[in-house]
Amino acid sequence: MTNTNPGQGLLDRLTRVLPQRALLMGDAIGPVYQEDRRGRFSAKPRFILRPGTTAEVSAALAACDAVGQRLVMQGGRTGLAGAHRIMEGEAVLSLERMTAIGEVEPESATLIAEAGVPLQAVQMAAARANHLFGVDIGSRGTATIGGAISTNAGGIRVLRYGMFRAQIAGLETVLADGSVLSSLRGLDKDNTGYDLNQLFIGAEGTLGVVTRARLRLHPAPVAEQIAVLSVPTIAAALALLRRLKQTSGGALSAFEIMLPDAYAGVIGFLGMPPPLPLGAAFYILAEIQASSGAEAAEQTFQAALMAAITEGEALDAIISQSQREFAALWAMRDAFADYTRTIDHVSSGDISVPLSAMAAFLPQSQAALRQIDPETAFIICGHLGDGNLHYVIQTQQGAAAMECLLHMVVAHGGSVSAEHGIGVDKKPWLRLSRSAAEIAAMQRLKAALDPRGILNRDRIFDHLGR
Ligand SMILES: Cc1cc2nc3c(=O)[nH]c(=O)nc-3n(C[C@H](O)[C@H](O)[C@H](O)COP(=O)(O)OP(=O)(O)OC[C@H]3O[C@@H](n4cnc5c(N)ncnc54)[C@H](O)[C@@H]3O)c2cc1C
């Protein structure tokens, strides 16, 4: 049985095993822990744990596990599936004080970062050592390494570098009972039984607390360029993607799509001149990052774009000519999330479908949603190169529309959550993407590693034994 009232005994133990600044209670707890990017309700936490070391995380977990005190892990609270929101009776375990970041180790091209380090700090440390960190997301300044690992964050360069999982060369995690697991030694080869790291990547804090990670880096690009293109159809966009993949010699690093309402909306939101005129059917942002042969890579990219226009895959294109233009075009794409927060009656699906199904899925899903509400606006943007759309719609029929959309996603062989996770918000739809046997296996794993269910309980799926 779980004790929902930790009582003085737990607080006394925590006070004994943790330094004063690692435990906040009462009025010392600021409203920041209840923040949510979607503005949804988060309960008041019983107390806040702010450990500064792995040993403190371990001691705090052992104390909470002993009395069944439920905890929610928090990094930067930028998660978009609500798993960081506080449920009644929970305390917060925040990694905000674990912000140490190691030197880049040139032999392995890796660095070790603590869980509370912002993603951007890792990107900057890599750049200072003439390397690149492969994951980039709009929330880079606030999202933490622990949160990004726990959501297996994706972002704009998955096409070239993979999701967060691909960046992990080692992990340190703490289980609910306080046991510490570590694979930080930096071994590329280690087949001594199960690869336990994989369990924690994308587990949304349900299986353990990530405390440190050894992160892989890539050579810094010698050239990077971004092009914005208008394209007439989805089929043409996919032909353009194939062309750029085939000609770029692996340098194609991003291939993003914006539908007209997303493009026009973001441009209006930022008050910037449109890079290409409004009114096209689709807009594509394509980026190359070349690790050698800068001039040749840029010429090849430009020649491919010219050929795409000649073949009718693209109608118009502009290419960044300076670092300033490069940054301004990415700023336009980055502003999408903030822009959509300004719109009323918005529903948002982070979905993926196989690229082979995309040309059918998009018009069919739009037609189906227009049947529910003919006034539906499609403010869609996404990582088309990965088959991942941030399918944002404006409609008064949000609940019915989302149900319809997610069923159509599954009918086209897709996933109801491409990169944001299930958290709390998408729990009702997990069963559409995962079989009963898969969900039962996940629940058994959870019960084995966290038998009292103290870590992020009721995220992804309901706690067993209800
Ligand atoms: C503007 C914007 C753009 C975004 N763009 C993208 C994008 O392109 N791609 C993408 O994938 N996501 C994107 N996101 C979502 C979000 O930024 C990522 O999921 C991010 O990785 C979450 O990091 P965080 O530190 O904020 O984690 P939080 O929101 O604090 O937590 C997320 C989850 O991880 C758990 N958690 C946090 N820290 C730990 C830890 N140390 N150990 C165990 N569990 C932990 C939490 O309990 C929760 O389940 C975006 C969000 C915003 C606001």
Tell me what portion of residues adopts beta-strand conformation.
15-25%
User: For the terminal residues, how far apart are their CA atoms?
Assistant: 11 Å
Low-pLDDT parts are none
Helicity, as a percent range:
25-40%
Morphology: globular
The residue-averaged pLDDT reads: 96
Count of DSSP H/I helices: 15
Give the strand tally.
18
Q: Give the ligands present.
A: flavin-adenine dinucleotide
Q: Name the structural class.
A: alpha+beta
* Biggest sheet character: 8 strands, antiparallel
As an assembly, this protein is single chain
Radius of gyration: 23 Å
Secondary structure elements and pairings:
Layout (H helix, E strand, L loop, with lengths): L6 H11 L5 E2 L23 E2 L4 H14 L3 E4 L16 E4 L15 E5 L4 H10 L2 E2 L12 H7 L6 H4 L6 E7 L5 E3 L14 H4 L8 E8 L1 E2 L3 E9 L2 H14 L4 E7 L1 H11 L11 E9 L3 H17 L5 E4 L3 H12 L1 H5 L5 E7 L2 H18 L4 E2 L2 E3 L4 E7 L3 H14 L18 H4 L2 H14 L17
Parallel strand pairs: 2-4, 3-4
Antiparallel strand pairs: 1-2, 5-9, 6-10, 7-8, 7-9, 11-13, 11-14, 12-13, 12-17, 15-18, 16-18, 17-18
